Fold each of these.
Amino acid sequence: QLQLQESGPGLVKPSETLSLTCTVSGGSISSSSYYWGWIRQPPGKGLEWIGSIYYSGSTYYNPSLKSRVTISVDTSKNQFSLKLSSVTAADTAVYYCARHERKRGDYGLGYWGQGTLVTVSS
Amino acid sequence: DIQMTQSPSSLSASVGDRVTITCQASQDISNYLNWYQQKPGKAPKLLIYDASNLETGVPSRFSGSGSGTDFTFTISSLQPEDIATYYCQQYDNLPPLLTFGGGTKVEIK
């Protein structure tokens, strides 16, 4: 059974860089059938796609966040990571990692991590 | 950028009722639309992909339809365990870019 687990600091200071890692177990991140993505949800609000990566390293970002986001992959560790720079209180959210379809063509996010709350505060 | 307008933002219905949620795209997105269910404190769950295809293991009381700019998500007979917030999600093909609707909170009357 595929599992995804987010890890990283739960508190980040304003203007600093938020860093999270997603560890994938029960399946290979190097599969050609999937992309791996990050989605966030501010408390009490809706979902926002941050960006996704293919195991080869190709990345796709939300245009509204592109200037601050870097997503990378480490196939040897079966992990992918998110860095969001120059954070503000508006970046406080639950951050989810997820797997989404590529080969099927619908980009559906079929497997999700449990999510991790990141608070931006001094 | 494509905008997704979901309505209503919330609804209250009785067990056994038919529930309908709509999602409108700001431009033609063909059938590039997925639907998710999110229960409180949990990650979202994919229910419908490509507008009308039921994800494996999802009960048949859930369905989706539409193409172009107008889409509908239906629960044919609302069950207590269906209490959740539902989101539509559009995707651009090549490169993959995803946009979520604002969500619809479904409650039991």
Amino acid sequence: GAGVSQSPSNKVTEKGKDVELRCDPISGHTALYWYRQSLGQGLEFLIYFQGNSAPDKSGLPSDRFSAERTGGSVSTLTIQRTQQEDSAVYLCASSLAGGQYEQYFGPGTRLTVT
Amino acid sequence: GENVEQHPSTLSVQEGDSAVIKCTYSDSASNYFPWYKQELGKGPQLIIDIRSNVGEKKDQRIAVTLNKTAKHFSLHITETQPEDSAVYFCAASGGETDSWGKLQFGAGTQVVVTP
């Protein structure tokens, strides 16, 4: 079946502009996660959505970052007033439920801020 | 919170040899330890996981061992093949302050299998 999809695959933006990154999770998965992966680094947790519960936003690095999940499915990560240090690959994952279930990752969006 | 350290950062092995990657964790309450493989240009993919009630788990050429006393776990790949070349991440969850299964990832190990 279809896996997690993300769009765009690549995004180049100028410093100071806003960007939106989209994630389509696997159908039926109630949990959704966003991670950031800087060049050669590990995965940095950003935000977690589970069903209708309040999201865990504890990993968002600043108030320029926000995320929504509409209708329990598609999610959008928004970065306002982008900075060069925001350049990274942004990965989305989904799992059947919250908790210690396998996370299925999308291919990521590579964001470059010039 | 939980802290996971992973070694080595790079590992080069000859095809057919074994590869071992080690991770340590800080929170003794952690109880779930997955390993993810990330190929170039793709998202990570779960290859094996272990829970704290077992000490070892195998799946064909890969195995994971867990030492709860020492708070470390390892990934073993036997008879390595070129397609094993990738970045491998260990992770841990279930610690004292973990309310939902949040994964703390290690920094990753770049494995290169040379023919």
Amino acid sequence: NAGVTQTPKFRVLKTGQSMTLLCAQDMNHEYMYWYRQDPGMGLRLIHYSVGEGTTAKGEVPDGYNVSRLKKQNFLLGLESAAPSQTSVYFCASNDRGIDEQYFGPGTRLTVT
Amino acid sequence: RKEVEQDPGPFNVPEGATVAFNCTYSNSASQSFFWYRQDCRKEPKLLMSVYSSGNEDGRFTAQLNRASQYISLLIRDSKLSDSATYLCVVILNTGGFKTIFGAGTRLFVKA
């Protein structure tokens, strides 16, 4: 099993550009999450999903959109990137919201 | 006040030392507790779950004190490979589940 995978691993965007980050998991988990991690601030939840076709806002959702059309995939979109979105983005999943979360390797995004 | 607070460190200890980390949480609806480990530029990975009765895994011991709302992690006989950031994680049950990560405590183990 690959676990949780993320693409791309690195990306540099110019302000105003758009992009989509893909997260895929092969563990048949119901719950999936998108976090961003900035120095000294820990992980902050952007959006999450409790099952195929569902999405919900987390702590810092502004500027991001998500979709969960298939159970195994969770997409994070940036419609108009801003320098404040420079961060490391982690995707995670678990089968029940109360369980251990399994993380992907992260995407390092720089917006210039 | 942050919902989950950790001493950011860094903790600098020699090999073989015993080191303890504490984490406090503010919401009494907290239901599940974990310690994760994160290596530099890597993803967080579960180190251990934390139970009210306490639990031990080799050199690592985790304790939960619900009355005082804190959890702890004790590492005995520190190894160079223990150098990492340790994240305290609390899951609230408030109708739905909410996972809160502490900002992490950095540990450097030196030869």
Amino acid sequence: QKEVEQNSGPLSVPEGAIASLNCTYSDRGSQSFFWYRQYSGKSPELIMFIYSNGDKEDGRFTAQLNKASQYVSLLIRDSQPSDSATYLCVPRDSNYQLIWGAGTKLIIKP
Amino acid sequence: EAQVTQNPRYLITVTGKKLTVTCSQNMNHEYMSWYRQDPGLGLRQIYYSMNVEVTDKGDVPEGYKVSRKEKRNFPLILESPSPNQTSLYFCASSFSSQANTGELFFGEGSRLTVL
């Protein structure tokens, strides 16, 4: 069974601080990793993807990948109340199927 | 406007009464998929389709049927709904899953309650 482990939260972060969301995965064959954001009652939307070990930055978001440790993270700088949502770490396995976890609920406190 | 459209958005039905949730996309995507989402659980894939007339079971296909007669449509059929199928359902689409960036385009969701 291919699994994704995320702290379900809620993770509470003050406005303007850095939010750090972490994820571990079980499938060593996964090579691509996606972060989706899901607002309450809404559908998921892709915010970042990362394929290579290291960091990838896009605006206030930085994704980090360490395949040897089977670890993915997402940093959100200068957190805003509009960042409050559930963040889903989604590896893609060697059959190109996405593996969905339950996500981490993030709350940004004004 | 590029979109995935699901209908109905909300439905309350009774055990055993057949229902169909429609899904249509206007982006000429080859790949379409149905998921269900329950509290505390991640998205679970029900069925997916790589292209017209090609469908495959996902992780939780029991109690569901699908068809892909046209590229744009991928209806989800519950022949005899049961209360354990009460859930939030999402349809999603993308270009070929082997070539795309992993970005799925989701419909707004269909909240189904089976009494």
